[in-house]
User: Fold this.
Amino acid sequence: MLADAVRIAHWAAGTPGPGTAAPLAAHALERAATALELSPAQVRAGWDRARLAGLVELHGDTARPGWRLRAWDRDDSAVLRGWVALFDAWSLVHAAPEGIEAGAVAEAVEAVPQVLSLLQLSAGPVTVPALLDLLGQRVAELQEERCEVPLGPGRTAPAASAAPAETAADQAAATAGPARSADLNALLLDWALEGLAAVGALTLGQGHATLTPLGNWAVWVKLEQICVAAQSPAGNIEQSAADMLLGCARLTPGPARDEYRAWLAARTVGSAVAELLAVARGEDALLRGLAFEALRVVGAPAEPEVRAVLAEPSLRPYALLWLAEYEGNDPDDAQDVLSREEATWLWVDTAAAVADHGETGLLVRHLDSAVQGTVPALLDEVRAVGHPRTVQVLVALAAAHPDPALAKAVRRAAFQVHTGGA
Assistant:
């Protein structure tokens, strides 16, 4: 279903210069057809599918590889997500019949999920008349919700004193309304079934339709997303990323992940990842750590954005740990990817989160997690790492530690950092 799209996306990503924007420029179309030994029609269709499946991203007149293309050969989930994106765009892959009002097309598209649900529940072929009946019922419900009940036999429009007399043609048109509506629904159902078949979601037989394994899986995924979004345990699904993460701060890991999944299910992946990273760049160290926990739930789609923040000192340790776990390292061994300086920076950042939101006893116990073997060595490296919260962390640690001698040493280190001393 996407083989030509992948080939064309690789070709476009490796072709310098403009000319691979949408629609595909004539000279680029010819070059692609020659290079890939495809017909111009195949190139055009494959290019459209590559864009719809997220295999290429358009930046002005230039095409760049999308994350799905980069992950295509090593990540099955990227392939499935690419196909789901194509499945979601079936109405663009297969253009609607000409001459049909846009509102009627939109109603049919909105009613298709019910048609797909019936196909999935039936677990086999469903006759076209049964699908047409369901489509008609759903369209009627949508019209009723919008107070757009069509006029038909027994229904008359409110009279107006100055309205012209109704002609025989008007009366005939009014009584023919329901028949016309049924014919229109039949035409739209045929279009929808052909569009879904074009993206591989179902197969069409003589008077019946059947979901393919891919189509059945896609419908299941959509239903699962709806269920996950409806089961937001802490009720933060409509909150901003920062408020949602704060709401999860007191949850244990399992319920917190459920909350992250519900919040993510209600948003597009790109916008959710961008919002989480924006929160991670803020001053609250607790939210920074929680943002990357939520990004662990996102998984593969977040990889390019997480890799892109490696150049940001405040996010680099978190991003390195995220990537290490994403690439299959044991979480207990992931710390090995951090340099001594990065580990110290992360220690200070985590201590800042504890100081702001935790208990004093937890801050004292946090000393044991430092990579340095002794407190004097830790203080030396903490002073050198340049974390903006170093002074506040050391002051809070000195106030919380029960050992007077150690507390004094920590206060001295805080003073030296504050005054710029060695």
Notes: The radius of gyration is 30 Å. Residues 177-198 form the longest helix (22 residues). Residues 53 and 85 are 5 Å apart (CA to CA).
